[in-house]
Predict the 3D structure of the following.
Amino acid sequence: MAKPFHIQGQTIGPGEHAQVVLNIYKLPTHTLIEIPVFVFNGKKPGPTILFLAGMHGDEINGIEIVRQLIKRSDVMKPERGCIVAIPVINIISFLAGSRDLPDGRDLNRCFPGSKNGSLGSRIAYDLIETIIPQIDFGIDFHTGGAKITNFPQIRCVFSDKKNLQLAKIFSAPLVLNSPFRDNTLRKEAANRGKHILVFEGGESHRFDRISIEEGMKGCLRTLRHFKMIPPDKKAHAHHSAHGHKTVFLPKTAWVRAKSSGLFHTEKQYGDKVKKGDLLGIICDPYGEVEHHVIAPHSGYLVGLNNQPVINQGDALIHIGITS
Ligand SMILES: [Zn+2]
C-alpha cells in the first residue's frame, strides 16, 4: 500500500485525492488567505513528487504549467506514488502582480522560516515543516527576472548525483550547474535530504509558449519514468521519448554591455553560438555609433535581455559555456 499524506490534520490515503490548504494567513484587512494544495495519492507505493509554482508572484509560466498538469485525468489518478501540486505558493504577491511580498521580502530567501515570523517566513515554515518531510523530490518553477527571458532550463548542483539523475529524467533542453544560495527552498530542502530542482523558463509577467510546453513535457516525462502515469503512445510512434538532446552546462557567464545605447540582438534564446560570433549590436539613438557584441565563449544562450535601452555594464546575454 502507498503512504498516506498528512496536512493540517487531514489525511489523504492511498487512492484518494483532495484539495487542501497549506495554512491560513491573515492580512491587515482581516482578509484570510488560504494557499491551496492539491494531493493526488495513488494506490500503489511510489515516489511523492512536489510541483510548486508562483514563489515569485509575477512568474506566471510555472503557474500555467502546474495548472495544465493538475487538470489531466491521468495526473489526478496516479497509478502509484503521490503527486503534490501547489500552483501558486505566493498568492499575496501573485494578486499584487509583484515578485516580492508586501514587506519587500523575497519568499525564496525566507527559508527555513519560522512559525511566528513575517508572512514570508510563515509560508516558508509551513512548506518546510508540512510538505518537504513527506516528499522525495520536487520541481520549483520560476522564470527569468525583469526583462530577461530564460530558455527552458533546469538548475541544480551537478556534484549531487541524484540531482543529475532527476535532471536527466526531466530532460529540459538545458541543464545548468547552479550553486546553492542561502535561505532558498532548494538549499533548505537539500539540508533535509530532499532534492528540489529549479525550472526556469521565459520571463516574468509574460507567458512563454516554448517554456510552458517544455515544462509540461518534463513533468510528464518524470511521472512516466516512475510509472505514475501511463506511457505516451504517441512518443513510441515517433521512435523517441523526446525530440531533443539535453545539454548539460557546468558553467555560465554573463556578457555585459561595453557601451550604453540601444541593444539589438542577432540571436534567439536557446541558440548555439561559437566564440567570436556576432551576438548583437549596440547603437546610439543618433545613427552614428555601432558597437558589435561578440561571443566570448562557445555555448548556448540560456538567457537574453529584452530591454532595448541599456547602460554600460548591463547584463545582456547569459551564456552556458561549452568551451
Ligand atoms: Zn523566481
Remarks:
- The chain has two domains: 5-248, 251-321.
- Residues 55-56, 59, 142 surround zinc ion (CB under 6 Å).
- The chain has eight helices and 19 strands.
- Confidence is low (pLDDT under 50) at residues 237-241.
